[in-house]
Design goal:
The chain is of the alpha/beta class. The chain has six helices and seven strands, in the order αβαβαβαβαββαβ. It has a five-stranded mixed sheet with strand order 3-4-6-5-7, sandwiched between helices. The protein has a two-stranded parallel ribbon with strand order 1-2.
Length: about 170
């Protein structure tokens, strides 16, 4: 992301081993900011250091512990900034069972029902992969992309790799 965008990258990792590995792998890149902390604490810190008008791309993948922070992360992002795109990895793609997604039991599946309140509260457009899982190669894990309705979501509608979800 740093090399492609030319923008600074801010990231956090809760697991000390994975954090150390990331620091080692990215040591030669400038403007990479890695923190060893919970994603919610990390986002709260970013709210203090990045202006609410800052355009952000936020990739969320903090969902493999018993504690699922996704709903709280969405509230922190939605209340802290107005100009962002969020991608959530390992997410259920409606109507395509070929995409894998994380499911930790009752009420803990990464699917739209988990984000319903945030989508309404922050007026978010919702996008899924345009390609069917049968056309994909590799791990075939689903994702969802969200952005407030407006200029950014309009740009996302033009990407051939995404399809806007109409409920």
């Amino acid at each position: 992301m740093r090399l492609t965008s030319g923008k600074p990258v801010f990231s956090c990792e809760l697991n000390p081993r994975f954090h150390a590995l990331a620091k080692m792998r990215l040591a030669n890149l400038d403007q990479i900011h890695l923190e060893l902390k919970d994603s919610r604490q990390f986002l709260q810190g970013l709210q203090k250091s990045l202006p609410a008008s800052q355009m952000l791309f936020i990739y969320l993948d903090a969902h493999w512990y018993d504690d699922l922070p996704l709903v709280e992360e969405m509230d922190l992002i939605g209340s802290g900034w107005g100009n962002y795109v969020i991608m959530v990895d390992d997410f259920c793609v409606p109507g395509d069972n070929g995409y894998a997604f994380d499911n930790y039991g009752h009420g803990k599946a990464l699917e739209l029902s988990m984000l319903e309140n945030a989508v309404k509260k922050y007026n978010l457009a919702v996008f899924f992969p345009a390609a069917r899982s049968s056309e994909e190669t590799g791990g075939k894990c689903g994702c969802v992309v969200l952005a407030p309705h407006g200029p950014l979501s309009q740009k996302l509608t033009k990407l051939p790799s995404l399809s806007e979800w109409k409920s």
